[in-house]
Amino acid sequence: MEATADEVDTAVRTAHAARGALADRTVRAALLRRSADLLDEAGEAVIEAADAETALGPGRLTGELARTTYQLRAFADLVEDGAFLDVLIDHADPGLTPPRPDLRRYKIPLGPVAVYAASNFPLAFSVPGGDTASALAAGCPVVVKAHPDHPATSELCAALLHRAAREVDLPEGVVNLVHGFQAGIDLVRHPLISAAGFTGSVRGGRALYDAAACRPHPIPFHGELGSLNPVVITEAAAAERAEQIGAGLAGSMTLGVGQFCVKPGLVLAPGGETGDRLLTALTAAVSDTEAGVLLDHRMREAFLDGVRTRAALPGVHAPVTPGAGSEHTVSAGFLAVPAAHLAAEGPHDLLLEECFGPVTVVARYSDEAEIGAVLARLPGNLSATLQLGDAESAGTDAAGRGARLLAEVTPLAGRVVVNGWPTGVAVAPAQHHGGPYPATTSTSTSVGGSAVERWLRPVAYQDTPPALLPPELREDNPLGLPRRVDGRAEGA
């Protein structure tokens, strides 16, 4: 089933040949909507296939399918609106110093995009997922490298997207599918691939990122690699609602058997009585969580080994021991450690690395200086969460703690959550799902309408005769696009 080098080459060349077919935005929108419709119509079969390969369960997969089809339709709306083309027109003005020529700028698709499917989202971050949807919205054909954990689901979804293409009079080559480890390497190295999107491990993503950068013609590589997603719980927050926070944290860290990319992996919690109340609530909630199945045996073994290694560090104890459940499952738990152990370089640095699965590390701090010392040592993250007290949230506490902590965590993450939990990434125009390295390898988002920007590049035309201009840049705006003319929104 693994694609040969020749098969990868054929898939990429097929995608490259389909570029012109995606030039019409109306057709692109129709493709995205028809893909969503067909996925909904085949929902029962899609969910059954995905559950058989991932054991994520019909409930979780039903929600993921709904998210996937919503994304496709949202990108169809974005394509029809046209604002993503970022049309800018500056008319000639010889009276300026220096004189300004006539300049007209918009964004065009890069070309064929390689998409690397994720293990933990067989739909929303795989063949019909956000990378594919946003690339097609941009006008870029796609070659998806299927994840080995769900090949049958990938084939089924690809077949539905091919059918959608045929039904809107597009070639099937606008979406292509390959399987295999070597195929993934051959794909990112192929000279006709113009950009790549990846969701997976730091090790795998970094290898592909380096390969993309080492090409004779380097390409953008938008990788989501790994994230600790720190949580800071202030003493005031714990005093006001320890039980609520403990239950919320347990739900967030065990959601999807801890296999979400924004699972809280490190929690800074107060010591003393308020912190004890919080840990009691967390212990009760995690203890009530049923064991679950991880996506594959390799991940299960990595989780068990990661927990054992971390639990063996001096000063670490497990109020609820995470580990093996039955032959195929794992049980949730958490580790506790004094925050001082993480404030300086040493063997406890392992606790500052992501452990994929239903486990988190609770670091008990004695003062605010320890919070700052630990945060200063963290790598980039997809999210950072603050649990604040009422006065801290309102900005009325004398110490100004809420604003100070917000400023402290903002450099660490692409999304800052206050008095909530990071799991559950809303698909919305204002969403940002990315962050400083190693969370991602670029500053872009893989969720929300702005994800389309990854597959576009700007081009400006200077003093170009009107008859030669693309329709998007003509003076009479025949396509009715939103645009800025001479620095102002047209029609404003």
Automatic annotation (TrEMBL):
InterPro entries found in the cross-reference section: Ald_DH/histidinol_DH, Ald_DH_C, Ald_DH_N, Aldehyde_DH_dom, Aldehyde_DH_Superfamily, ALDH_KGSADH
Keywords per UniProt: Oxidoreductase
Domain of life: Bacteria
Alphabetical list of Pfam families matching this protein: Aldedh
Biased composition (Basic and acidic residues): 472-492
Molecular function terms, GO-annotated: aldehyde dehydrogenase (NADP+) activity
Region (Disordered): 463-492
E.C. number: 1.2.1.4
Boundaries of every Aldehyde dehydrogenase domain copy: 2-386
Protein name: NADP-dependent fatty aldehyde dehydrogenase
Naturally occurring in which organism (per UniProt): Streptomyces platensis
Organism phylogeny: Bacteria, Bacillati, Actinomycetota, Actinomycetes, Kitasatosporales
